[in-house]
Amino acid sequence: MIRTHALVKRFGPVTAVDGVDLDVREGDRYGFLGPNGSGKTTTVRMLLGLVLPTSGSFELLGSRRAQDVLAQVGALVEGPAFYGHLSGRRNLTLTDAAGPGGVRRGRRARVDAALEQVGLDGAGSRPVKAYSLGMRQRLGLAAALLRQPRLLVLDEPTNGLDPQGIREIRDLLLGLNRAGTTVFLSSHLLAEVELLCDRVGVLNRGRLVVQDSLAVLQAPTGRTQVDTPDAFQATQLLGSRVEAVDGMRLLVRDDDPAALNAMLVRAGVRVRALGPERRTLEDTVLQVTTAGSDRVGGPQRDADVEELSA
């Protein structure tokens, strides 16, 4: 669905995207992650034909020309922009008419269906200037869904939503994916990406530093996590096998968790929980992107790139 080869984008002296090789397969729920200024938005803009690459190549739905397949792509990038004095329904009607491959026939039905999908069917007649941030975000997602796209490209689709709204959008995206839509999602909400995505790519300073399935990234580390109120006694008993202690939580290097549990119980250690340690997505992202945080103030920041490209 999306393939890039050595994709590079420079804005003067700033290299925003540096040799990225993306591999987004049909049916994926792909999480595109990285700190602010890592090059995510610039990469997405290249994929959608909004910015030309400096070098390298890409394919979108098998085509090297984004404009040839945009009718099959739904996108919500950098926040939705609408006419505030017009209703949500009227804005979607104009979006459908102006989009690639737009046809008048069936437009009303498409607009009504999109509003219903995102939970705005009761607010379609209101002017957008009366919408909350979350409602505007839902309307942006509705615009992306107008033509039942094969590929959805979304940038922070749950921005401004409350927890219930986030869950509703997550369930909607999972349903669309089950029906055959590939989802490419850029987000800072790592917990949501863990719940929604099955593959992830992580950018750091313009480079793709991780690209793998979530199952592989969250595989057991080989250590066992033990939660016990008798942490000191357990540490004395296990000696050098204990690699870390955090309050009542011990990380133990041991090949047989069942035998470890039996040993602790026989010694009178109260075990509240015991199981394999698994890395979280946050652990992975922080490990590979710490040096690229926008707190450093380096040249890769999106604000700098947008200023240069203006």
* Poorly predicted parts: 292-310
Q: How much is the radius of gyration in Å?
A: 23 Å
CATH class wording of the largest domain: Alpha Beta
Q: For the largest beta sheet, what order do the strands appear in spatially?
A: 6-7-8-4-9-10
Q: Count the helices. How many?
A: 11
Q: What does the average pLDDT come to?
A: 89
Dominant shape: elongated
CATH architecture of the largest domain: 3-Layer(aba) Sandwich
What's the end-to-end separation, in Å?
29 Å
Would you kindly provide a written description of the structure presented here, covering whatever features stand out?
It is a single chain. The protein is of the alpha/beta class. It folds into two domains: 2-216 and 282-309, P-loop containing nucleotide triphosphate hydrolases (Rossmann fold), CATH 3.40.50; 220-278, Alpha-Beta Plaits (2-Layer Sandwich). It contains eleven helices and 14 strands. The strands form three sheets. The chain has a six-stranded mixed β-sheet, with helices on both faces. Strands 1, 2, 3 and 5 form a four-stranded antiparallel β-sheet that branches. Strands 12-13-11-14 form a four-stranded antiparallel β-sheet, covered by helices on one side. A hairpin with a 2-residue loop joins strand 12 (242-246) and strand 13. Helix 2 (88-98) crosses helix 3 and helix 3 (107-117) packs across helix 4. The two termini are 29 Å apart. Residues 292-310 have low confidence and may be disordered.
